Amino acid sequence: xxxxxxxxxxxxxxxxxxxxxxxxxxxxxxxxxxxxxxxxxxxxxxxxxxxxxxxxxxxxxxxxxxxxxxxxxxxxxxxxxxxxxxxxxxxxxxxxxxxxxxxxxxxxxxxxxxxxxxxxxxxxxxxxxxxxx
Length: 133
Fold this sequence. Notes:
Elements: E1 9-17, H1 19-29, H2 39-44, H3 54-69, E2 75-82, E3 94-105, E4 109-118, E5 121-132
Antiparallel strand pairs: 1-3, 2-5, 3-4, 4-5
């Protein structure tokens, strides 16, 4: 994986989440917190609606880069900060937009900076993947 230039776009994609996506993720992850599938529980705890799992959002963001690079073995580390939830509407779902750009390059690796948004709101900050060169 060579040829990274700071500022270059590595990948950009919008992924659509539905309530079914959340149920499937809950089954795969074992995270059955009802804020991820029940509107009444989400409202009771003061949330604006049913929320996508944070780890699902994080996984979606990294998958965009993995699909573009095609080499998961080249990923050295990955981290994010969660800032805002992704509210998944019962019928309309939610779109998560991921833009991945080269943020830094050294002799051994490149840092890929991710901008992750839902409805024009940044939902992850300091979202960065480091890949081996």
